[in-house]
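Data card: per-record layout.
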Amino acid sequence: SHLRAADPAAAIYPKEMRIESSRRGVPRLRANVTATVPETLSISIAHKDALALAMVGDQPVAIDIERIETRADSFVALAFTDAERALLVAEEDAATAITRGWVAKEVAGKLTGVGIGSQLRTLVVDARSGDDLCVNGRWVHTEKLANYVIGWLRQ
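The structure for this 155-residue chain is written out next.
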């Protein structure tokens, strides 16, 4: 009870929450068996193949995962400008770089609550620092895990 008083989100157990989806498919945490889940608690969920990720925070969060693979030229041309492609591939092989860029855009899109679909060309990778990519002024941390790239962001 002391922990809950100091930080209400710190002592919430999984059975106290349920996940609902908004009309746009955005996951939301809601109280399940108690009334102790703060309205400000945020969740992001991602999956690829047999892997699944979730991130919870007391502020908006976003997470994504994609398998590293060679993408079709038509996909790359649709998803990234020439400047973005040059920035991405300057530090690593094209398959990893393009996957990393896509993950960063997905994360940034999730954080807006709209997703990447309607924002594909307005979500712009404009800087890179190692594995971190800046999308529209927000830094998305990415990491390579085996044959996947994971990315996440807290607002």
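Known properties of this structure: The two ends are 28 Å apart (CA to CA). The chain is about 25% helix and 35% strand.

See the next section for split statistics.
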